[in-house]
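Exercise 7.
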Amino acid sequence: LKQSVARAFEHYNLVTENKRLQKLTQNQNKQLRIANENLESLVHERTLQLEEAVQEGIIMLAMAAEAKDDDTGDHVFRIRDLTRDICSGLKMSPEQTEQISFFSIMHDVGKIHIPDKILKKRGSLTGEEWAIMQTHCIAGEKILGNKPFYQTAREIARSHHERWDGNGYPDGLKGESIPLAARIVTVADVFDALTNERPYKKAWPIEKALVEMEELSGKVFDPNILKVFLNLRAEDREHGIMVNNQWSTINN
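Solution. The predicted structure, written as tokens, is:
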């Protein structure tokens, strides 16, 4: 009887201890799960903060370069929006569209190295001044370093003045040997340059700029990219959407 009672108590104690340990394990697992969730949330929050800081730094650098070019900084955001439209028109993925459009703001970052007397000169540049101006492409690529994260930005900075016919600079690239992102930004950059006032020129009406660009298809511009861009501008005009506040010039 004593042995039976002892075994009963032993069994009871084992069951009780097992339940206690199970409950303890469950509580610890719950606490661990909460800790992991909090850690994941914290890591996600810190990652977003880091991404925002990097993006803000890129934007500030781009605007600093534009400030040297006697610009309010709006140019880089117009280029970003035009580039995004073209990428969407080319049916690129949302990720690729966002990457190219964001890094397009860095296209002229190399102008930080160009003297103000050249950037702000009213009138034509001399041959020597033009040679110095052309160096902003390679300077921009160097500023952007060699990390993979900035690969698209470097391609845009170096090659956005290349021409489809091979007569551009700095490398004389031709056709599809020019990086796609750079070919897209070329279209956006030329359109914005034509339709906005610069120290050396007045702003062109949109229609005049589009006619000029169409004539340069296959010379300066990738014909397919330019066609997409012209179709987008035609849709804007059809729906009465203003670009750079100039459609009124056409309508008049």
